[in-house]
Amino acid sequence: MALGRKRKQSLGRVHSISFRKTSFDGEQSQIGGPGFSRVVFCNDPECLESTSLKYGTNYVRTTKYTPVTFVPKALFEQFRRVANVYFLVCAVLSFTSLSPYSAVSTVLPFVLVVGFTMGKELLEDWRRKKQDIEANNRNVKVHQGDGNFDNTRWRNLRVGDVIKVEKDDFFPADLILLSSSYDEALCYVETMNLDGETNLKIKQALEVTSNLNEDSRFKSFKAVIRCEDPNANLYSFVGSLEFEGQQYPLSPQQLLLRDSKLKNTDYIYGVVIFTGHDTKVLQNSIAPPSKRSKIEKRTDKLVYSLFLVLALMSFIGSIFFGIATREDLEDGLMTRWYLRPDDTTIYYDPNRAAIAAVLHFLTALMLYSYLIPISLYVSIEIVKVLQSLFINRDLHMYYEEGDKPARARTSNLNEELGQVDTVLSDKTGTLTCNSMEFIKCSIGGTAYGRGVTEVERAMARRQGSPLGQEVSDDHKGGDVEDLPEKETTIKGFNFMDERIMNGNWVNEPRPDIIQKFFRLLAICHTAIPEVDEETGTVSYEAESPDEAAFVIAARELGFEFFERSQTSISLHEIDPISGRRVDRIYKLLDILEFSSSRKRMSVIVRDDEGKLLLLTKGADSVMFVRLANNGREFEEQTREHINEYADAGLRTLVLTYRELDEDEYEEFKEAFTEAKNLVTVDREEIIEKVAEKIERDLILLGATAVEDKLQQGVPECIDKLAQAGIKIWVLTGDKMETAINIGFACSLLREGMKQIIINSEAPGFRALEKAGSDLDISEASKASVLEQMKEGMEQLTASASDLAIGCASVICCRSSPKQKALVARLVRLKTGNTTLAIGDGANDVGMLQEADIGIGISGFEGMQAAMSSDIAIAQFRFLERLLLVHGHWCYRRMSSMICYFFYKNIAFGFTLFFYEAYASFSGQAAYNDWYLSFYNVFFTSLPVIALGVFDQDVSSQFCLKFPVLYQEGIHNVLFSWTRILSWAINGVFSATCIFFLCIYSMEHQAFRKGGEIVGLEILGTTMYSCVVVIVNLQMALSINYFTYIQHLFIWGSILFWYLFLLGYGAMDPTISTTAFMVFIEACAPSPSFWLVTLFISIATLFPFFTYSALQRRFFPMCHQMIQLMSFHGHVEDPEYCEMVRQRSSSHALVGCTARLEAKSMSFEGEP
């Protein structure tokens, strides 16, 4: 039994099955057929038949690489990028005579960049490898023969092994449960790793194996299991157990899945049926879709564009070179005599000018390779990883109550967070807490419960009622006795109504109906009671928060469920005649389980008077049609109350019952047992059809209403997102009325908005529903929807496809998981803008993966959504900071970083091109080989990384205060083709200034005291010095927020260039070549070297400085306005703040601010 102070009651055979001759008809049974061919020899994995089947081992590998495949696969990943293929070709050609520079200077930087990226891949894979090692080397007890169980590593398990799993251990493979420490062969399983649910599941072994509950009893155990082949379906299983000459059906009730955890059970015995990658959890481990940000995709296009520019420059140069080479030797005269065209190689042969031009084209392709930033992708990856660390460590997104920080599970989409146009949100557990509280109910046509929901308070504020004012003013003054609020002290129970509390229900007009109502709540469930042995208090372990709230409500109102045995449920009830507390035992005969298709749950019990009772609770959409003609006494009032509860944002269930006669029950029991014992794929459908036949002619008792409260900060978050220009859609499975009123409560909707409601309701729809004509219902629904869409289009003057996209907010009700995913795909493809989906449950996974960005809520209800997401946060309110702060910063940083990367490479590359033109396209490089190689690697790389990590246009406080800043990302202002082109032009301008000013200032002037003019080595060093200084100073002018790291990197990069020049020039001439002593002997002693560098730097940067000053003064962007306000101390001035907000390109139509503005405008419009 379970240990500890609490005594857990035995559930018994809740899913009871009466075993008799099992139906294994050839027509229905699939065992042995395609997809159902697996045979497991229990406790005999080494037998000849078992080994011949060659099932996989239990070794699990989640790594991307193996020691053998790492090098080829990692290289393949690297050379999927066109830029790397290009640099590889250049590296190979550098060993030929075509190369304008040495092979080492080309190969080394390329190897460093590729090696760094491969090293990062190796490190990430090693982390996965360590997780695999830990999992594969866990121990589990395996039967070794003669009733002895010894520890064996998980990886050594085989199909057919009998194992013993102890409390709080994970299951090492997929098992069939044989027995447990409970007499009834029960066990409790936590499946959080599989489906994200924290509620315990109940599993139960077959009765025939339940006595195998000791090690010694497995000494001679032999059985054969035939079942389905490995598949990904977590919720179905078809198989049979052949034991002692009899066959018994197996169902999901006996299946224990790998990575589930055994809870509240001392131990279980099970037989391994699926191992390793055949287990259902690993069959579900499909790699998430590859997502790339729009900036990254545009960057690829930029790289391709630079390839075209490079090829064009090479083509132009080769043409001019071919023409000049052809004319080098005419009538015995040598034009370019220094090339000795009369005695030369094929590269300069005037008689073969065409071939020389082609070879020059290849040389030029290598020479201009510095137009392509070799370190771009590596730098981007470094920056994104560091940005993710900032997200992960942001204390403002840390949820202290649950000890859950934000987690960026991928760094690929950081900048995409700054461009979100539409948010698609789940409701339950995302906008709301998924912590249900019983707050109201309708019994016998009378409404009970005086609690006030958040939606009702929001509605009161909209209508200007006293309740809304009182709530807004924290109840200062006024009398709210009729609609009180109290801080609930009992989790799951927030009900207040003196008419039925404290046993007063016996004095109500219909106490018999009230008694049946709460008795049904106390019996119709699968909850497990836990009794505190010291206080006697009963608590419950339920499969859903709703079910727990119902059982708690029944307990608080006098119907306490306190014990569950193998065949009975025991209650403490209040006797309506004596008023005393009595114990009653109800014999539990059958449970008809809840499913998403049935939308209801039933139990069949026999009371202490011997009556057979069918108790059913379910959704109103399936319950009212099953009422008997004499069971509709309170239907009209109950429907009205359900609508009112939906208006109040509450979730409702209808409660019904009926008495069964013995003959009817026996007939049902026979059919139900036969259906349970089937071993077929459609077993569950057959069971549902049998259950449908008895769940009819029901008598209505009433309806329940539970509240799922809004999470803290949801309205404020929605308001900020709306001001930022982000559209918000809510996709929920709730009723339309409930969803609409939740929308009002969180300010997604407001009074005065034009509402377009499209649903399947049509005139006479209910009459058709009762008549049961499916064809007529379908036709009427389709006609109604088309008509409503037509009316909506007329109101918005939009096409059908633009109807929803043109709305300020959209709420999709009654959405299935698949429909959520399809809506996300529709919005993403139709708008072409960035979509973000946010949800907390397994039913939201499809939506998260379809959207450009998937945000998982890692709350208290499991981790399935968080595990399938791109980024995980604990509360919806953290989305505000994630987008408006981190999203804005990451988008701005990445856009500026990439633009600057291309600027500095264009500036550098065009100096090479200009010198080539100056040198008659001879293929001579202007710079030393190692100058070329280290430009992108050392002298300009660190400042750009610092820009991508640390730069801020405004502080986080102002990002939140002025959400209009975020619209720069939505409209892609900072990475538009116009802005990219302007940076490219700036790069060409810088190159032009550097080259021509250097040439004109140094070409004919004496450079040394002896009157010598400069040579190529001095010219190249001077030009290179100007490039390094100017591109780093350009960075300094572009940065908005300086840190000591940026100062260190910018000024340090310039200093490092001169230190490198000093050290490299001091090396042996065979190493330093043209740089030998050039700085010490020539450049450093010459004043003109320093003057030229200073003059050219000022001349090159002055136009950019002037343009920036004029633009900031006369045409400031939003962030520049805020910077000026902050500098002058006007950030709290309403007039200045309003000036910034007026820069918004779209007016917020939803949120608290929009509601207040609409209200003030309505007051102004009053006479």
Give an overview in words.
- It is a single chain.
- With 1167 residues, the protein is an alpha+beta fold.
- It has 38 helices and 34 strands.
- β33, α24 and β34 form a beta-alpha-beta unit.
- The radius of gyration is 38 Å and the shape is elongated.
- The two termini are 76 Å apart.
- The N terminus is likely disordered.
Main sheet: which strands, in order across? 20-19-29-28-27-26-25-24-23
What portion of residues belong to β-strands?
A: 15-25%
| Gross geometry | elongated
Give the structural class.
alpha+beta
Question: Helical amount among residues, as a percent range?
Answer: 40-55%
| Beta strands, count | 34
What does the main sheet amount to?
9 strands, antiparallel
List keywords for this structure.
1167 residues, alpha+beta, nine-stranded antiparallel β-sheet, seven-stranded mixed β-sheet, 38 helices, 44% helix, 16% strand, elongated
How would the blueprint of this fold be written?
Elements: E1 6-8, E2 38-42, H1 48-53, H2 70-78, H3 82-93, H4 103-136, E3 139-145, E4 148-153, E5 162-166, E6 174-180, E7 186-190, H5 192-195, E8 201-204, E9 223-227, E10 239-243, E11 246-250, E12 255-256, E13 261-263, E14 267-274, H6 280-283, H7 294-326, E15 329-330, E16 333-334, H8 353-367, H9 376-392, E17 407-408, E18 420-426, E19 432-443, E20 446-448, H10 454-463, H11 466-472, H12 511-523, E21 528-532, E22 538-541, H13 545-556, E23 559-564, E24 568-574, E25 581-592, E26 600-606, E27 612-618, H14 620-623, H15 635-647, E28 650-660, H16 662-676, H17 683-694, E29 699-710, H18 714-723, E30 727-731, H19 736-745, H20 765-771, H21 774-796, E31 809-812, H22 817-831, E32 834-839, H23 845-850, E33 853-857, H24 864-867, E34 871-873, H25 878-918, H26 929-939, H27 941-950, H28 956-961, H29 967-970, H30 977-1002, H31 1016-1038, H32 1044-1065, H33 1069-1072, H34 1078-1083, H35 1087-1114, H36 1118-1128, H37 1134-1141, H38 1152-1165
Parallel strand pairs: 18-30, 18-32, 30-31, 32-33, 33-34
Antiparallel strand pairs: 1-21, 2-9, 3-4, 3-5, 5-14, 6-12, 6-14, 7-8, 7-13, 9-10, 10-11, 15-16, 17-34, 19-20, 19-29, 21-22, 23-24, 24-25, 25-26, 26-27, 27-28, 28-29
